[in-house]
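Structure, all two chains, one model.
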Amino acid sequence: MVKRTALLALLAAVLVFPAVFTLPFPRHVMIMIFLYGSLAVAWNILAGYCGQISLGHAVFFGIGAYTSTLLVARAGLTPWAGMAAGAALAVVFSQAVAFPVFRLRGHYFAIATIAVGEIVQTLVINWDWAGGARGVFVPIKRPDSLWNFQFHESKALYYYVALGLLLLGLAVTRWLERSRHGYYFRAVREDQQAAASLGVNVAREKHRAIAVSAGLTALGGTFYAQYIFFIDPESVLSLSLSILICLVAVLGGVGTLWGPVVGAAVLVPLSEYTRVWLGGTGRALDVVIYGALIMVIAVLQPAGLVGLAARLGRGRRG
Amino acid sequence: MEIVNFAHGEFLMLAMYVAFFAWALGHLDPLLALPLAVLALAALGWATYHGLIRWVLGGPMLAQIFATFGLAVFLRAGAQFLWGVDFRVVQDPWLGGRVALGPVFVGLPQLAASVAALVAFLGLWRFLARSETGVALQATAQDRQAAALMGVDTDRMYALGWALGAGCVGAAGALLAMYFYVFPDVGGTFALLAYVTVALGGFGNVPATLAAGVVVGLVEVFAGLLLAPAIKYAVVFLLYLAIVLWRPQGLFGRW
């Protein structure tokens, strides 16, 4: 009951946030929290619940971003159609790559997903129609309209769209947690052989998990393209983006509903503000701190901040 | 050893910087700096094991992946912080130019690097297969607990494995510095190729890795020649995925 009230209060606070903070920067930070939160939530479905640690999720993000942007720039469609098409394409692509990569386990699966990411990035860099290495601009359309998914006057609508993406991801995760498939996913994560011996179709469950994860990630990609107005292979398809997505989830707590959100709420402001303070020096001090942080988390608290909070809570009670 | 070092490329990058600074500050040719790079990297590998890997060995796989990933990010950004993003080149190394092997011209530094790599391969193979320590190392990789029960100090074996692996990277970095520019991100592509090569041959199998290395090299060259140089790595990785679909354990691996 207390938890439910707290959640409702948090939701209310998030909903009125743009009314209180009218400056662009705090809104931008919140939008980024929602975006990376939703990406980490999507990654978490495959990696956290199903145990398949993908280091190539930027591919799905890039498919979402490129599909919608190319449809807008080359065919004049509304980005919402592109968003749906991007998600569908990401799901189809995920099913195709799933055949080879799911034959591998553990570290070798992770390596194969990096290889997939590199293949796609290399091909897009050399694909002139899609802008190649120079990237593509989203054509600016005025005035602001929901149909064109472009809001230049104020970030408030972006804010609510990003929040909607995050809530969608959380709702799907919550539903999965309680559904039969959520239990199958976790069984696959804990022990594939045991799960198979109990009648779980391991391959089919993995395919399901990656399909849901890929589709949700692609939605975020379209949002990013419509928010930034420019995409190129480096910004939407690179390995560093894949790593960032995992990092958010790992910091918060993998395999938990709220972990990715907590991770985003900590990491995004940290990165936005360190970038503002230290980033301009061009010496990557913020990234040095990042790397150190990842190692510390891996060694001291692999269960993430949510795990740490749970342990502290238990310690107080017990 | 059942742990993949995702900072492998960054180790290579550091080795190249060792060779570069030995040349820039001490006027040492990369060939002379080679033992220095081997020692420095072996020490780094040893320290990485004791400072980081040991603490995640029993932990979840995720912690293992992210420990070395964090190290990679840290080293790469650290190099950028300390030495900037400039591309640096060792000028006029002792070995330069090219030699004609019949109708084929081969760059002398590249040739030296291949010969050194073959020597390292043979040495490593003999060490692992013949010496008592090498066998103990393999036993630890196969089954840590069983090896410990047979009286193998697995902690020392792991540290040795890391020092050995990093030492080899040290040699590779010094050789590579003769003909490749040095910058903080240099490791990325090489490391990914290294993982794919090892996975293609089969993990924990030295001769298979050598064979897979030849396959990867040939595919890379012919893809660059027949299709387009820009997509040669994509072809290598595609081939890897195709082979994995057919043999998940790699070409010569046992599962």
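The CA atoms of residues 15 and 217 of chain B lie 22 Å apart.
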